[in-house]
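forwarding from the other thread:

> can someone predict this with P1T?

sure thing
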Amino acid sequence: MKFGTKAIHAGQEPDPTTGAVMTPIYQTSTYWQASPGKHQGYAYARGKNPTRSALEKCLAELEGTRYGLCFSSGMGATDAVVKLLRPGDEVITGDDLYGGTYRMFTKVFEPFGLKFHFVDMKDPAVIRKHVNSKTKLIWLETPTNPTMQIIDIEACAKIAKEFKLILAVDNTFASPFLQNPTNLGADIVMHSVTKYISGHSDVIMGALCVNDEKLYTDLAFIHNSCGATPGPMDSFLVLRGVKTLHIRMERHCFNGRKVAEFLKTHPKIDKLYWPGFPDHPNHDIAKKQMKDFGGMISFSLKGNSQEEAFRIASSFKVFTLAESLGGVESLVNHPATMTHASIPKAERERAGIVDSMLRLSVGIEDIDDLLIDLKQALA
Ligand code: P1T
């Protein structure tokens, strides 16, 4: 089956008890057992819930993996991956990451004796240079949040295989419609389901998709033991949202391109970050590993004034000033004070996240209205 058919049907059979075509919201915390341990596959809802199971199967199919696990947030999913490690282990990751991921790595897990190397992953040679006998995990985002760096997943997978490391890819910005990292050799795909997969800015959720049975068993153990599992209502909302993922992504990409082209010649823009431009570093890799270039765009202003960025961010009429991304509605975000405020200023600026940077999540509204809004806000 092709992607759009899977988005609508995968994991979802008519309900065996009633024939309900849409997967019911199994709003229960526990399940009847005929005698201790004798149940119908469900014992306690932290471990398993039929609404969540349907979604997990659907997401696994969309990523082309054997297994899926849904978490109560993207951070919950990331947390489970890091808990595969032990004190003394080392991780190689990027110098541009979602601020919350950086915060978890440095503030939560470094005190437990893990070491994180934040490196320029655009060049596989730099990654290779940081591998040592303690390295266990390569964690990457591509495109990165918010500077849209493109990391070569296949090249990273080669290094991971050579040194027997786990390669985990945060695929949030691409969505499974644009990119499937396990097809390129990654071991774990992570999603903030909150974003494109859910698509309607009404749910917080995360997911992990994997092929290897042992890896799945280890992650499922952490999932159930640590308990960052989502409820059935949220699972239902995401099952509903994901049915239109392929249609939404086409429009996100179409609108994203138009907005990027508009900004490219705007006299106030200094740097513009969108992987669809041929002069974007690693544009060729983006072309190779992504179906299209997505609807996430960042830019900085000539003169680098935060005041001017704040003024623009507050002047939009269609774009909403808010954290998050990937919903049907367009959002604007100021990374330095919002999504990436937990990264020290010097490190932020080294990654290009300057005080005048704004990040757009281009929604699926009519493009004419978005361009009019951008024009007036920048004026
Ligand atoms: O918010 P949550 O579902 O826990 O997902 C965290 C997360 C993980 N990875 C990436 C690439 C992300 O962008 C996020 C969340 N990001 C935002 C809220 C944001 O506005 O960038």
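The first strand starts at residue 67 and ends at 71. thats all i got for now
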